[in-house]
Amino acid sequence: MDAKIQQLLSLPSMVNGMIKTNSVNNAVDAFDSNGGVRHYTSLLYRWAAFIGWVAMEFTILKAAYGYFTGGTASGLALFGSVVTTLLLVASAFPIAQLIRSRGESLGTGHQGMTSFIFGDFIKTNIRLLGEVAAITALFAAFNQTVSFLLDNSLFSATSSGALDSLNAVSSIPMNLLNEVMGMFHIDLVTNSLNAASSFRMDSSGTYDGDFVWNTQDLIGVINSYVNVIISLAFVYVSLAIYGFLYKMATTLLNWISSPSIPISLKNK
């Protein structure tokens, strides 16, 4: 009876050997939390770069097809929209390369899974999303420049819509700071930072095809380039905030694991 029970308990191992799945077990056994995570994280970002590039190009070309077949734009506007479409198509390439390069930076060594996830991974994605937004804003500024020169409202679309699902990562620093400041009822700091981070120069323009260029439209074009700089600046503000909070949390945890009170007692 005992032999029959042992055979029954050994059944999964026997079947596993019969269907040749030992390689799966070996791969799991060989996986380590440093090299394995680094390798597969980098691989995922390479795939994300390629899939994101395809999704961005599809989104742009689909929107462009709808614009050009709509039959509402004039001849000059159609010509200018060809230029802006090419610029938008071109914008997907540096965005995809940026995603790939940031993923490769995560492929380097790290001190442990905690520092990798809550340190390197989040910081890299905050920087990545901010830089993608800056590239998108830069190409939008290029398109606005063409619209200003031709004095026509031209085709425009966003090339980074495929990354909208990751936007929650970029809001982590401010969300954490809001929670920390809320514990001490210091809302003035976070309210000021939120107001500052959402500030953008007015880049609107009116292009009606009369070839009468005015100062307000020119200022709007200049402001569209200034907004790129503002976006990049607040990326590093967010990184500084998160870095401070992360360092404060790790210092506190280290102290809890090995508490010490820096009191000096002197014999007098």
Number of strands: 0
Distance between the termini: 81 Å
From N to C, what is the helix and strand string? HHHHHHHHHH
**Fraction in helix:** over 70%
Low-confidence stretches: none
Mean pLDDT: 76
Number of helices: 10
Overall morphology:
flat
Give a written overview of the molecule.
With 268 residues, the protein is mostly helical. The protein has helices at residues 2-9, 11-18, 22-30, 35-68, 75-105, 113-150, 167-170, 172-183, 187-197, 215-257. Helix 8 packs antiparallel against helix 9. The longest helix is centred in the last third of the chain and has 43 residues, at 215-257. The protein is flat, with a radius of gyration of 27 Å. The mean pLDDT is 76.
Give the secondary structure arrangement, pairings included.
Blueprint: H1 2-9, H2 11-18, H3 22-30, H4 35-68, H5 75-105, H6 113-150, H7 167-170, H8 172-183, H9 187-197, H10 215-257
